[in-house]
Design a protein that fits this description.
Strand content: under 5%
Structural class: mainly alpha
Radius of gyration: 16 Å
Distance between the termini: 38 Å
Shape: globular
Order of helices and strands: HHHHHHHHHHH
Oligomer: single chain
Number of helices: 11
Largest sheet: none
Helix content: 55-70%
Number of strands: 0
Protein name: DUF937 domain-containing protein
Number of domains: 1
Length: 206
């Protein structure tokens, strides 16, 4: 069974990239690892939901092909930590009106607080898109079950499988994703179930 997108990207960020992200946010190594582990399913799950509609998959595929296919993760991280990367704009496309709720939910679930969590999402968003572009165009969008290749349909299938995996696994990632994307359908972000998940997850920022 192939690793999930979340696990694959998290593995690529181990070591110096994760240390650099932690240094940027003033987090210990364990805090940085925990926060990134919570943020990646949120970003990839939201992208999976967006790409579940053909127009969403086509728009994302076009953006990956146009703006992210020639960039490796290391270069993107260096640009983002230097103030580039257009993380704010990318988050607007991913979450729309739920962008602030995403930062608040991540902050509540990890103990970072909304400001640090929002910064983390801005750092990770361009990295996630670069990673997806690599998967689509360097490997032809190949996953164990994906026969559609580098196409909007293939991207939609790949992200749809990831969204399903995150929600089925539950835990912090699935709970956070469900809260931010409005599990109860009333239009309001509901973080009440996240506080119990937080616990001693990070032990609070230093």
């Amino acid at each position: 069974m192939s690793a999930s997108l979340t696990d694959d990207l998290l593995n690529q960020l181990q070591g110096q990239p994760l240390a650099d992200i932690g240094n940027q946010l003033g987090l210990s190594p364990s805090q940085a690892s925990g926060a990134v582990s919570a943020a990646l399913p949120l970003l990839l799950g939201a992208l999976g939901r967006n790409a579940s509609q053909p127009q969403g998959a086509e728009a994302l595929f076009g953006a990956l092909q146009r703006d992210h296919s020639s960039l490796d993760i290391g270069s993107v991280l260096g640009s983002v930590l230097g103030g580039g990367g257009q993380g704010q704009q990318i988050l607007g496309h991913i979450f729309g009106a739920r962008q602030q709720g995403a930062a608040q939910g991540l902050g509540a679930a990890t103990g970072l607080g909304g400001d640090q969590a929002g910064t983390l999402l801005k750092v990770l968003a361009p990295i996630v898109l670069s990673f997806l572009a690599q998967r689509m165009f360097s490997q032809g969008g190949a996953t164990a079950a994906n026969q559609l290749g580098a196409s909007p349909q293939g991207l939609g299938q790949m992200l749809g499988e990831e969204h399903q995996s995150i929600t089925q696994q539950g835990g912090l990632g699935g709970g956070l994703l469900g809260a931010v994307l409005d599990r109860d359908g009333d239009g309001d972000t509901d973080f009440t179930d996240l506080m119990g998940l937080a616990g001693s997850f990070l032990g609070g920022p230093r």
